[in-house]
Amino acid sequence: MIRYLLNRMLMTMHRRYDYDVRYMQEILQTDLPAFLKYLGFQIMASHSGNMPAEQLFATRIRAIIWDDCGPCTQLVVNMALEAKVSPDRVRAIVDLDLDNLPENTALVVRFTELVLAHNPEAGELREQIRALWGTKGLIAIAYSISSSRVYPALKYTLGYGHACSRVQVDDHTLVPSRSTESQHG
Questions:
Q1: Which of 45, 63, 79 marks a domain boundary?
Q2: Which of 86, 95, 133, 146 has its CA 20 to 30 A from that of 51?
Q3: What is the pLDDT of residues 104-130, one digit of tens each?
Q4: Parent domain of 36
Q5: What was the pLDDT predicted at 171?
C-alpha cells in the first residue's frame, strides 16, 4: 500500500512538471528503505532558509546546469517559474547573462559558478553573501548547490541520464550556457 501511495505522489510530480520519474519509481519498487532515504534527502534539497526565491533558484539552476543540462535543468526552471521568478530573469540565469540580472542575483550566480569550480575567489563573494543573508542564507545556498548535484548523479548511475538538451522558458527555447569554469569534463 505504501508503494502505491508513494508512486501516486511521483505520478503527480510527473504530471505537474512533465518530468520523467522512472528513476525514482525504480528505486521505490526495488528498495523501499532506499526510497524513504531519498525522500529524506528531498527535505534537505527543498531548504530555502531566508533566501529570496530568485536568488535561491539562481543557485539551483546554475548548479544543475553544471552536471546536467537536460530534463533536470528543465525541472528546476519550471519550479523557478512556478515560484514566480520572472521568465526574463530565468532566461538570464540559464544564459549566464549577468548584465541582465540584478546585482544580488548576479552575485549568487558568480558565487555558485566559483564554488562548483573550486575556485578560491569564491571566498570574497562568500562574505558578500553572508553580509546580505547571513549564515542562514549561505547554508541555503550550500544545500542548493550540494543537492542539485545528487539528482544527475543518481540518474546517470541508474541509466536514466540524458545528453544536453534545450530548455524551455515560456515561449523561448534556450541551450543552457556553461561557464568556462564548468568545462570540466
A1: 45
A2: 95
A3: 999 999 999 999 999 999 999 999 999
A4: 1-45
A5: 81
| Residue-wise pLDDT tens digits, 23-38 | 999 999 999 999 999 9
Same domain, 63 and 6: no
Same domain, 160 and 130: yes
For residue 159 the three cell numbers come to 541509466
Same-domain pairing of 72 and 121: yes
This prediction's pTM = 0.89
